[in-house]
Automatic annotation (TrEMBL), chain A:
PROSITE patterns: CARRIER, PHOSPHOPANTETHEINE. Residues 1-83 form the Carrier domain. The keyword Phosphoprotein applies. This is Acyl carrier protein. Keywords: Phosphopantetheine, Phosphoprotein. Pfam families: PP-binding (PF00550).
């Protein structure tokens, strides 16, 4: 799980071009969307694409999305419990 | 000068609902929907999504689908007209993209395959078709393009710059828009249900519509175009302001421009795309402006969202409402959203309609509203004494070697400033957070806007933004299409789609500078900056508003050589210029006007330019320096044009061929404009630019920035 969180931090910094941030500074529990990083609905869609492409996990409703993208930790937990062969 | 009444003399329409006014009326009256699974191309993944596709359109790739649609609508609007229009204004977002996509997939490496990609090719095609020799302009403001084009046409007519204008919008279906809206999760798999409680998005569509607008009094017009209002949310790249602040401002401005009050409106044709956010924001805007809203509806459940064509198609629907007495239903809506303070018309109603307000909103928070009325509703003419010139208070440019200071210094040394300013240096000059999601074109625009803004000391932030770009956001467009293809049409980037629209940079500038007024992007190849200049000159009010006027292009290593014929095997160059302008002469650094814009390749173009400037007398009265724009691909046309002009002038003038110094790219003339302004301000043209001694500029001196080739244009710069 921690490994996945670290992996996601690195991926998100690149995907969302958060160039001022290092993985160490990236708080996995901090509010992701609408927080200090300026991440909004367009970034959420970009993350939806990445999660589908890289982990085969679909997030296709706004309600689910809001919960999943609350923080890096919640995103990791959702991927972990939904990906094929993942923890059930 | 009296404000002139503008009549809709005729109209043409090609939409998924049908061809021409009669078929359109019949489909509207029958509450028919034309939305059906896409079939002009086969998606690799999943079932085709619902889309609005024009039937019976020849599907060969040349000319592109958008050009075919535009030709049909133009033919209808001009049928039986004895003379060509004086000007054309067409809204379009993606030009010949559908053919470009095919060529890229086929790995076509010759620029021959991409001749009809740009928006200029489209409007020039229509201008050739109808033998128009005046300005043929493009407006590319995403989904409000058609309405904004009509608003610009209205003001060309009111200011007496034209008597007859063909105006409208066109877009064809394409992979870019089909997958782009899908990537934003804005497509409703169940077809489009505007204003419905369960609405889940739009249906991407295509079409074209054009109005022949005239100030010549005619007996039986379809309707009168009474007013237009433009605004920008300056809030978010895609999401509307949640309270519909910009939408309200545009509606209010349009109604006031028409000399009416909200209670005078008989019917509102909503933007009503069927996305949850748009319909809610629009409903809130209406609730805040109308104490008791008139009947209203959206036709997008019948037609789909035809993007740049939508505003023009709905302008035709508005004219039908007035001339044939009908209010269309909101096809697709079954259960109106109880969150709204009104209930839309569900089915078509036959009843007299005197006035219509028609809304179009787009990415970049770009809003345009139009008001149409019948003859009985013509308002008393208002005085309009709009001056042509713009007062320049601040400027900035970016070349391969840097900003204005570095550029001017290099030119004075006799060097060249052409090239591509390094990406890393560009990023360093802008806050990381501001540019996180945007690529090269929007970054250049933001840098220029910020610099020109701070150069305009003592002035308030600009209210409006006018931008010209020859080719738009090539990085985002290229990356989106590459991502689409390389992922087997599964994972294109939503961020790239949002950034790919031509007006994305101008929307970013509006957010940076909080410019909530008109926001107009033109994309006219080598004449893009001139088109934006003409739009600013025409739309900027006499008092109380200022504008950021930009011309920007980015050079893309793969895409640019395919599109821009002037590059050839030469080096890539890009950048642009920005001018902070208003109408206030006090403390202005320079005055400027677009003195002439002609096209059509006729041998008499230089003669018409000469006459427009004032003929021989002009060149006796003023000492003139020419900054000549000669695109490398246009030498054969440009050479004789310049020779003829020199012959008419009768004596030789100092000439600077500015592309020799700033490189070959579409909006190089924006840099020339900034340099011209700088020369006027300092009273001197460096001798290195004109191949001789320094030229001193006095109060009567003029610098003319000429565009030559396919079109012939002149921007005039002089001391206040």
């Amino acid at each position: 799980m921690n490994e996945l969180i670290e992996e996601l931090k690195t991926k998100l910094i690149e995907l969302l071009n958060l160039s001022s941030l290092t993985p160490e500074q990236f708080d996995a529990k901090a509010q992701l969307v609408g927080g200090e990083l300026g991440i909004d609905s367009i970034d959420v869609l970009e993350m939806v694409v990445m999660v589908d492409r890289d982990y085969g996990v679909l997030i296709n409703s706004q309600e689910v999305g809001e919960k999943v993208f609350a923080s890096v930790a919640s995103l990791a937990a959702y991927i972990e419990s939904n990906r094929a062969g993942g923890a059930t | 000068m009296k404000q002139r009444l503008v009549y809709v003399a005729a109209a043409g329409i090609v939409s998924p609902l049908g061809w021409g006014l009669d078929e359109t009326e019949e489909a509207l009256c029958a509450d028919r929907t034309a939305i059906a699974p896409l079939d002009i191309f086969s998606p690799l993944q999943g079932q085709p999504l619902p889309a609005g596709q024009v039937k019976d359109l020849d599907s060969s790739p040349v000319p592109p689908r958008a050009h075919r649609l535009a030709r049909e609508a133009a033919r209808m609007a001009l049928h039986g007209q004895p003379e060509p229009p004086d000007a054309i204004v067409l809204g379009c977002t993606t030009g010949g993209i559908f053919t470009t996509e095919e060529q890229l997939r086929n790995k076509e490496h010759s620029p021959d395959g991409y001749r009809s990609h740009g928006l200029l090719s489209l409007v020039e095609d229509i201008a050739n078709l109808c033998h128009c020799t005046g300005p043929a302009l493009t407006v590319s403001t995403a989904c409000s393009s058609g309405a904004v084009a009509i608003a610009l046409a209205l003001n060309l007519l009111r200011t007496g710059q034209a008597r007859r204008v063909l105006a409208g919008g066109v877009d064809s279906l394409s992979r870019l828009t089909y997958y782009g809206f899908h990537s934003l999760q804005l497509v409703d798999r169940n077809g489009c249900r505007p204003l419905d409680a369960g609405r889940q998005g739009l249906a991407v569509a295509e079409g074209a519509a054009m109005l022949l607008l005239t100030t010549e009094q005619i007996e039986q017009p379809l309707a009168c175009l009474l007013g237009a209002g433009l605004s920008c949310d300056a809030y978010h790249p895609t999401a509307p302001h949640p309270e519909g602040k910009g939408a309200r401002a545009a509606m209010q401005a349009a109604i006031e421009d028409a000399g009416l009050a909200p209670e005078d409106i008989d019917y509102i044709n909503l933007h009503g795309t069927g996305t949850p956010d748009n319909d809610l924001a629009e409903a809130r805007a209406i609730a805040s402006l109308f104490a008791s809203p008139p009947p209203l509806s959206s036709v997008k459940g019948a037609i789909g969202h035809s993007l740049a064509a939508a505003g023009a198609i709905e302008a035709v629907v508005s004219c039908l409402a007035i001339s044939r007495g009908l209010i269309p239903g909101t096809v697709g809506c079954r259960q109106p959203d109880p969150a709204f303070a009104f209930t839309p018309e569900m089915t078509c109603v036959q009843r007299p309609v005197r006035t219509v307000l028609s809304n179009s909103f787009g990415f970049g928070g770009n809003n345009g509203s139009l008001v149409f009325g019948n003859l009985a509703h013509q308002h008393p003419p208002l005085p309009s004494s709009r001056e042509a010139w713009l007062a320049i208070h601040g400027s900035a440019c970016l070349t391969g070697i840097g900003l204005l200071h570095e550029t001017f210094a290099r030119l004075q040394e006799g060097g060249s400033a052409g090239g591509r300013f390094p990406d890393a240096d560009l990023a360093q000059r802008l806050p990381a957070r501001l540019i996180r999601r945007i690529k090269r074109l929007a970054r250049i625009a933001l840098l220029l806007a910020g610099e020109a803004r701070s150069n305009a000391e003592g002035q308030d932030g600009p209210d409006t933004v006018f931008m010209g770009t020859g080719w738009g956001a090539l990085s985002e467009t290229w990356d989106f299409l590459q991502g689409l293809e390389s992922s087997g049409e599964q994972f294109p980037s939503p961020t790239d789609f949002v950034g790919s629209v031509h007006n994305s940079p101008a929307g970013q500038v509006a957010m940076l500078l909080k410019a909530t007024g008109a926001n107009v992007t033109c994309s006219g190849g080598d004449y893009s900056f001139e088109q934006a200049f003409l739009a600013a000159q025409t739309l900027l009010p006499e008092t109380g508003q200022s504008a950021m006027l930009l011309g920007v292009d980015e050079a893309h290593a793969e895409f640019t050589p395919l599109l821009d014929w002037s590059i050839g095997t030469g080096d890539l160059a890009d950048g642009g210029g920005g001018l902070y302008v208003n109408r206030d002469r006090e403390q202005a650094k320079c005055l400027a006007r677009l003195a002439y814009y002609g096209r059509g390749g006729g041998d008499d173009l230089p003669d018409r330019l000469f006459a427009a400037l004032g003929g021989a007398e002009y060149f006796h009265r003023h000492s003139v320096v020419l900054f000549a724009g000669v695109p490398a691909a246009m030498q054969a046309e440009s050479g004789p044009q310049l020779e003829r002009l020199q012959h008419l002038i009768g004596h030789s003038l100092p000439v600077c061929r500015y592309r020799d110094f700033v490189g070959e790219f579409a909006s190089a003339s924006a840099i020339a404009a900034v340099l011209a302004s700088q020369c006027i301000e300092t009273g001197r043209v460096p001798g290195t630019l004109v191949g001789g001694a320094d030229v001193m500029l006095g109060p009567e001196s003029r610098v003319l920035v000429l565009g030559t080739g396919q079109c012939l244009t002149a921007m005039e710069f002089f001391r206040p």
